[in-house]
Write a structure and sequence with these properties.
With about 130 residues, the protein is mainly α. The chain has a domain of about 80 residues: 434 Repressor (Amino-terminal Domain), CATH 1.10.260.
Length: about 130
């Protein structure tokens, strides 16, 4: 069954831009040279810096921070500040998010709950 990958969010993109800047400051080392320092496979390092395939995981973010000698909490604050300067804002107030859900619950429904073929698909044998 094909899976739809997560779309790269503004945070993901800005994070990689930041680490690309750090990579340039470090003399633009090759992906193979960076991989052991970041504790990642060089192919995954390439995926991240090229913003391909899966989005960065929390562990990968932490590995990137530590590999470049940066504190993960400070790095996240820096990335969020950079995004705010670009006009990207995030809701962090739980009650505001709850109010949005209450105002328009249909916007937050799962597609699977409305799939006309869900019963037929549930009976489809798996290989």
């Amino acid at each position: 069954m094909a899976r739809t990958p997560r779309i790269w969010s503004p945070i993901d993109i800005e994070m990689i831009r930041y680490f690309s800047e750090l990579r340039e400051e470090a003399g633009n080392p090759s992906l193979r040279a960076l991989a052991p320092q970041l504790k990642l496979k060089h192919t995954r390092v390439g995926d991240l810096f090229n913003m391909q395939n899966g989005t960065p995981t929390l562990q990968e973010f932490i590995d990137l921070c530590l590999g470049f000698g940066k504190d993960p909490a400070d790095t996240m604050r820096l990335i969020l500040n950079r995004l705010e300067k670009q006009g990207v804002h995030f809701e962090t107030d739980a009650s505001a998010i709850a109010d949005r859900i209450a105002d328009d619950p249909g916007m937050f429904n799962l597609a699977a709950n409305h799939d006309e073929n869900k019963e037929l698909e549930a009976k489809t044998p798996r290989d």
